[in-house]
Amino acid sequence: MSKAATVRCSARSVSAPLVLAAPPLLFMLAFYAVPVLSMLLRSVSDPVWTLSHYASLTGDTVFLKVFCNTLYTSLIVTLGTLVLGYPVALSLVRAPRWAPFILVLILLPFWTSVLVRSYAWMVLMGRHGIINEALLVIGIVNQPLRILNTPLATQIAMIHILLPYMALPITNALRQIDPSLTRASSGLGATPWATFRQITLPLSLPGVAAGTLMVFVLGLGFYITPAMVGGPREITLSMLIAQQVDQLNWAYAATLSAVLLASALAIIAAFYRLPGVSNAFRMSAR
Amino acid sequence: MAAELTATRAAGHGASVTLNHLEKSYDRVAAVAGVSLDIHSGEFLTLLGPSGSGKTTTLMMIAGFEMPTGGDIAIDGKSVVAVPPYRRNIGMVFQNYALFPHLTVADNIGFPLRQRGVAKVERARQVGQALELVHLPGHGGRYPRQLSGGQQQRVALARAIVFKPRLLLMDEPLGALDKQLRENMQLEMRRLHADLGITFIYVTHDQEEALTMSDRIAVMNEGLVAQIGRPEDLYDRPISRFVAAFIGESNFLPAVVCGIEDDVVVAECEGAIIRALAQSPPARGKKVVLTTRPERIRFADGAWNSTVPQNRLTVTVTEAVFAGERCRYMLQAGQGIAIVLKEPSSASIRRRAVGERAEIAWSVADTILV
Amino acid sequence: MIVVRLLPAMVVGLILLFLVLPILVVMVVSFSSETYLTFPPPAFGLRWYNAYFASDDWLQSTWLSLRVAAAVVVLATFFGTLAAIGIPRLPSALRILASALILSPLIVPVIIVAIGIYYSFARYGLVGSPTGLILAHTCLAIPFVVTSVGANLAGIDPRLEQAALSLGATPSGTFLQITLPLIRPGILVGALFAFITSFDELVVALFISGSGAVTLPRRMWDDLLFQIEPTIAAVSTLTIVLTAALMGCAQLLRKRAPT
User: Fold this and answer.
1) Which DSSP letter does residue B25 get?
2) How many angstroms separate the CA atoms of B73 and B32, rounded?
3) Are residues B89 and C164, on separate chains, in Cβ contact within 8 Å?
4) Residues linked to residue B201 through DSSP beta bridges, in sequence order
5) Statement to judge: residues B338 and B222 lie in one domain
6) pLDDT number for residue B22
């Protein structure tokens, strides 16, 4: 078989998918990748090629405070979604009769826009919102608590919004556990709690890792929710970036954006390598 | 009723296929390492081998789904390597049938006719004929998921032959069926081959299946053809240990050559003299392996005499298993050579007990040097 | 004892209540007839729905969001389907880069995407125009189409394509007659997600809608800054119902994919 024929054939096998993939890739490059990258470039090219913007971050108390606050909030939210999300995931798998109903209750808020959900929490947590009304009626407090515009409000609202992102990967992981394993464990004398602790829980960890990864990374980038229900004193990195853009401090905004992006990527890189995480992640992508 | 489809037989219209030093490597690992085969027009040839032997890759190259990295494939004398699969006009049956789930059985079978521009009415007629040929009349309106495995198999077959190809490729098509169904389908395929008269190339790892169905078998191992021949030739005269072990069951006797008599090798094994047929006589003193089939050995103490030259050995019975139509004995000769003997389980043959000593004999013509 | 056995169910019930309560509250408040946000509302009525339907501004924004979303559906579905089919067949280095690019909007914090796009679009006069919104939203929606079609495609037996080729169908014939019908559910689900992504999108719109292309979420946001009027609750309820209906269809479609 001639070499020319081989070359022709392998060229043929590359060109067809390229013809298909090129239009979407070019579109995304033009209207998304290049704009974002050129903006990020401002962090090292403004006004001349320099790393000074990054260097000055180390002494920038505002940035450090905001960054730590953002990380802390993401951490709390991740823990919160884990604590609340695992039981829900478990119930989806253990009670198949109720599963469609539970799924709807998880998915309905999931499908609602972040704006609407954040607004809903504004209604709930306001001075005359349902939470305060309930507390007053029960008699726990004498006057309405200030829940809205506090860090707690941000955390509660974010936990609510990100809960499905934790529950769904865990559900997938639990569903993949061979049911005969738990039966075997039972038959060998383990109590239900012991079976859960030693068999189910460890085998569900890839899903937990995937959920944790998604919630933490998404939490880092949250903007709408903290802006709507958080106080003006506790701002997240996204809000700081938006503020700087409003004031046309592009170089600073670009530097902050680069730091935010790098943090997200670093965490993904660290977690993605764990066994099973990439699968669980892929399956739960909307 | 299937007259047109079977008319190809009268004209001797199977395609001939020639593989010339065919090679396929992936990242420097050779899946097919130089296969040369001449497949005759109208024959049923099986590519037989363990997984990883390159048999499926070879089939895929003939079909056009893999590009050879060396060598050539010619169909009816013309090279087809540069021809894309949809222009090769070859019928193909896949391992899991690959029926289109969103099309009815009739649309599945009519699919190749549609690509060739056959008009609707004529298409329906030919689809009907094909369904008759595979004994599924009236199933045209069903969907593949509504059929059993065996029925899906037959639809896949019908689809592959409806456009009258002169070559049919089959990649382990019976693997997913249970034993009884598989044996029935093997006979069906034999019959179909006889009726259609076209060339069949069949891939399988099941040596019994190959022996049952084929005109010739090409045994493959590690990307090369180990031996090609008619089933009885491969069974009686394997040319290598691999073929002897892969087809049927074999006993292997290590021995040392002590002499040559015409084309018979004389060797010494555990103190006994064994004679065997050899293609090319080896040198004296050379260590060789002689092979013979378990069912060709008999217990020789008693009345079994033969006019043909025999080999004899003294053995001890280490295991005796009754397996329905046969008894199977594990014997030990000398210092640890294991020999298997199979004989019919007739009431007139005395069953041996474990620990018994006995003499066994088998004809020299059934002993091969590999 | 009964309490102990029911405890897990009660815990899960509370969590589920937590999940769904805010949505329910918004829907109830939208039917309130008072201007201030209290719960429970003192009286019910359709006042805020009337306010919505009577307001030119709200209706214009709704219409704009619908138009933009419709355009995004067409573009994103088209590009996303091409990408889902083409990218897996590229040689491995290209494939990894292409996948990373196509899927990155799912990972990159949306504020970064928003200001990046704003940075460029401002220079080309694409701020404050529906065109800019359509282009930006399409980029955000493409990954959803790609994952949906990609998942569907991955579930299709590759031998079906080989079978079609062996039976004489050309590569394009194979695509039209075999591949495309089988990925239709994935395409439809992707289209639905593309619509919702664009319709609900706020952060990018905050920066590039300017004053000439105020989308519905943008108007809700602006309104919130100045007054917390239950009109927003009415609008929210309407969007909840719309989203739920569309996503419900998506779920049904997913279940019906033939294998």
Assistant:
1) E
2) 13
3) no
4) B45, B169
5) no
6) 94
Residue A14 has pLDDT above 80, yes or no: no
Domains of chain C, by residue range, sit at 56-255
Give the pLDDT confidence score for residue B313 in this predicted structure. Answer: 87
* Strand, coil or helix: A238: helix
CB-based contact (8 Å) between B111 and chain C?
A: yes
Q: Are residues B341 and B296 in the same domain?
A: yes
Domain boundary (B195, B228, B243) is at B243
Q: Do C26 and A106 touch (CB under 8 A)?
A: no
CATH code, domain with B256:
2.40.50.140
Question: Which is it for strands B70-75 and B78-79: parallel, antiparallel or unpaired?
Answer: antiparallel
Segments forming the whole domain that contains residue A62 = 51-284
The domain tally of chain B equals 2
C166:B101 CB<8 A: no
Share of chain A above pLDDT 70, in %: 91
- A7: in domain: no
Asked if residue B293 lies in contact with residue B249, where contact means CB atoms within 8 angstroms, the answer is yes
Task: For residue A276, tell me if it sits in a domain.
Answer: yes
Task: Give B68's contacts in chain A (Cβ within 8 Å).
Answer: 1
The complex scores an ipTM of 0.88
Contacts of B67 in chain A (CB under 8 A): 6, 9-10
**Same domain? B170 vs B111:** yes
Give pLDDT tens digits for A240-286.
Answer: 999 999 999 999 999 999 999 999 999 988 887 776 666 655 544 43
| CATH number, position B89 | 3.40.50.300
- Domain, as residue range, for B18: 3-243
CATH number at residue A271: 1.10.3720.10
In a domain, A10, yes or no: no
* Chain-chain contact of A5 with B72 (C-beta, under 8 angstroms): no
User: Which chain B residues are closer than 8 Å to C160 by Cβ?
Assistant: 98, 100
Number of domains composing chain A: 1
Displacement of CA B225 from its chain's centroid (Å): 13
Using 50 as the pLDDT threshold, list the residues of chain C that sit under it.
259
In chain B, residues with a C-beta closer than 8 Å to the C-beta of C177 are 111
Pairwise CA distance, residues B116 & B119, whole Å: 9
Show which subunits contact C, needing at least 3 CB pairs below 8 angstroms: A, B
Task: Examine the domain organization and report whether B282 and B200 are in the same domain.
Answer: no
In angstroms, the CA C121 to CA C259 distance is 43
Q: Do the Cβ atoms of C219 and C236 come closer than 8 Å?
A: no
Residues B210 and B295 reside in one and the same domain: no
All partners of chain B with 3 or more CB pairs under 8 angstroms: A, C
Contacts of C121 (CB under 8 A, 6+ apart): A35, C127, C132, C135, C136, C208
Mutate to test the interface with A, among B19, B62, B81 (most CBs of A within 10 A): B81
Contacts of A6 in chain B (CB under 8 A): 67, 69
- pLDDT digits over A93-143, tens only? 888 888 888 888 888 888 888 998 988 898 888 877 778 888 888 887 777
Q: What is the pLDDT of residue B286?
A: 86
Both B60 and B175 in one domain: the answer is yes
Please, what CATH class does the domain formed by C56-255 belong to? mainly alpha
Which of B243, B262, B289 is the last residue in one of the domains? B243
Closest CA to B253 of B217, B288, B205: B288
Chain A touching partners, 3 or more CB pairs below 8 A: B, C
pLDDT reported for residue A11 = 47
B327 pLDDT above the threshold of 70: yes
Contact C37 A250 (CB under 8 A): no
Cβ-based contacts of A10 with chain B (< 8 Å): 67
Task: Kindly state whether residue A16 falls inside one of the protein's structural domains.
Answer: no
The answer to whether residue C117 neighbours chain A at the CB level (below 8 Å) is yes
Report the residue of chain B nearest A13, measured CA to CA: B67
**CA dist., res. B332 & res. A70, Å (int):** 78
Residue A106, chain C, CB below 8 Å: the answer is: yes
* Residue A14 touches chain B, beta carbons under 8 Å: no
Closest to C61 in 3D by CA, of C243, C247, C239: C239
Radius of gyration of the CA atoms of chain C, in A = 23
